[in-house]
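hiii so um. not sure if this is the right channel but i have a protein structure encoded as tokens and i wanna go backwards to a sequence. like what aa goes where. can anyone help
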């Protein structure tokens, strides 16, 4: 009888030990942080990271991510910004936070002194010395872009997960996808033989140097290219240029000579930059001055696009960055005005600012000489 009792006691002890071991394993995989969890994921640079979620303190060296966090309602977790966020995204109201400067001049000591949970930056800048200096201090570096069309939705979903804002991310993506589907369906009705050839250029380089820097629509790997260039494809146009973009390079343009552009002679020129127009610009005067300078002082005047006044200037943010899904609708309307005459893209831009960012809509984002 004592043997039976001993065996029974041993069995109970083994059973309880197994149960405790199982509970410890679950606790390890889901570390508590204010009732949160530990999340392991892969960023857009292909690097695996592990952080406690929801994230409480973030340094953001990517202005597109700064805007994404405002969309999600997680901007209160940002403790510092950089990458011209204050200059180019003044409506985000991060002006009371430290500005760490452009990605080429990040103050590592300042970041460490702020003791953030994570630092968000681009996939291609700064270089990996950022990780080498911050990760030994216990600060995770997460590389996301939030402007390349093939990655934006997944990146916003990941941010939603990291900040416990998954529902908000899903609702925004649903709204955004509706506009993208509207454009895609309308563009699918345009026969290939009627599609216009388009060349996307840097307005700054053309205006100041009289030279040509192209935003390619495709990468060297065959993927969607730079936003300003790929918008041509989304809007139903054909890229007049055949240059490709190396996504590992910090520059998003490719320099070509004047002869190349004159030979290609596109139906339409689209010109892009962040310094012209934007949220705090109230009229078209700057656009008109730049347009007239380009026509009067560069070889653009020799192009078919100039003779037909099919030259359109866009602020980078609405067509080459995180608002591309709205700007591409305007580009489609510029290319095919009759087919898109019922579409009012800037009504959607107003909704974006006022509903999703929670700020007043204003600014000048687009210019056409046909409007003069």
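sure thing!! here u go:
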């Amino acid at each position: 009888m004592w043997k039976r009792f001993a065996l029974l006691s041993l069995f109970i002890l083994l059973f309880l030990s197994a149960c405790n071991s199982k509970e410890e394993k679950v606790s390890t995989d889901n570390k508590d942080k204010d009732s949160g969890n530990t999340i392991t994921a892969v960023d857009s640079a292909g690097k695996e990271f592990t952080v406690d979620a929801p994230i409480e303190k973030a340094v953001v060296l990517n202005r597109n991510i700064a805007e994404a966090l405002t969309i999600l309602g997680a901007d209160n977790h940002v403790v510092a910004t950089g990458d011209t966020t204050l200059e180019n995204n003044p409506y985000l109201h991060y002006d009371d936070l430290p500005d760490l400067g452009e990605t080429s001049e990040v103050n590592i000591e300042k970041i460490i002194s702020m003791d953030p949970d994570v630092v968000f930056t681009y996939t291609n800048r700064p270089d990996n010395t950022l990780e080498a200096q911050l990760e030994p201090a216990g600060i995770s570096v997460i590389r996301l872009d939030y402007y390349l069309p093939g990655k934006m939705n997944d990146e916003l979903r990941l941010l939603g997960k990291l900040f416990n804002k998954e529902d908000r991310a899903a609702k925004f993506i649903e709204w955004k996808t509706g506009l993208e589907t509207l454009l895609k369906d309308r563009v699918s009705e345009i026969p290939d033989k009627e599609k216009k050839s388009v060349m996307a250029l840097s307005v700054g380089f053309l205006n100041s140097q009289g030279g040509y820097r192209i935003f390619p629509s495709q990468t060297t790997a065959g993927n969607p290219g730079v936003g300003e260039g790929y918008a041509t494809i989304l809007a139903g146009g054909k890229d007049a240029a055949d240059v490709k973009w190396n996504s590992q390079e910090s520059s998003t343009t490719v320099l070509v000579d004047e002869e190349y552009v004159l030979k290609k002679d596109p139906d339409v020129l689209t010109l892009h930059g962040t310094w012209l127009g934007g949220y705090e610009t109230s009229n078209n005067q700057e656009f008109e001055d730049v347009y007239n300078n380009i026509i009067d002082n560069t070889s653009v005047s020799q192009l078919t696009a100039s003779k037909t006044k099919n030259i359109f200037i866009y602020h980078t943010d609405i067509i080459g960055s995180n608002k591309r899904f709205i700007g591409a609708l305007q580009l489609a309307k510029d290319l095919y005005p009759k087919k898109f005459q019922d579409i009012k893209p800037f009504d959607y831009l107003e909704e974006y600012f006022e509903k999703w960012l929670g700020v007043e809509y204003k600014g000048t984002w687009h210019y056409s000489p046909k409007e003069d």
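oh and The longest strand covers residues 37-42.
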